[in-house]
Predict the structure.
Amino acid sequence: MPVRISPSILSADFANLERDLHRIGDADLVHVDVMDGHFVPNLTLGLPVVERIQQVSPLPLDVHLMIDDADRWAPRYAELGAFSVTFSGEAAADPVATARAVRSTGARASVAVKPGTDLEPYLRTLDEFDMILVMTVEPGFGGQSFMADTMPKLARAREAVDRSGLDVWLEVDGGIDVQTIVTAVANGADTVVAGSAVYGGEPSERIAALRAAAATV
Ligand code: DX5
Ligand code: ZN
């Protein structure tokens, strides 16, 4: 099964978002990073902008919420028509109820964990999620270095998903390039976010290079 590529528009030109959305048409998803300046020390965009992205994007939306009060906000992004909504597990009071609320809209429900957060509680309720996002940097900014010490956690998630027989996707996000994608896929990732690696050059060429690197695993 080929790896899915989800370019992060955090590295796009926010003054030319529609143009930059069309420059990644060869990808599988578009990764939309929502940050609130509280859960992470950075602020990006919110519901009205994501709603317009949903209207003009040629690709399904892979919304990544890095915001407090995930229980309240995740369903709102799902209602906009996002394909997938990932909320930060650390910001949710009741992750299972929040995932159910997201799923009730027809969207895929996903939970993210920071590099230092234990994944085991989520692996015990795997059937409640369509995807798990293992952060490979501390969330907040693009262009950071991949943290290889998150790989045992990813490999453990891969083992749990395979054993369950469930079709739960495993996503990685942060510091992915043509080298680190090989490590991430070898440890079980099937869905890969890349921001600076895609928009740092000609996006269609960068996406092709990432796909080629992933196919070597
Ligand atoms: C970081 C965001 C990422 C970011 C990745 O907190 O969640 O999606 O855009 O950027 P790169 O690929 O440049 O590390
Ligand atoms: Zn992200």
Remarks:
- The chain is about 35% helix and 20% strand.
- Residues 8, 10-11, 31, 33, 64, 137, 139-144, 173-176, 193-197 surround D-xylitol-5-phosphate (ligand 1) (CB under 6 Å).
- The chain has a mean pLDDT of 98.
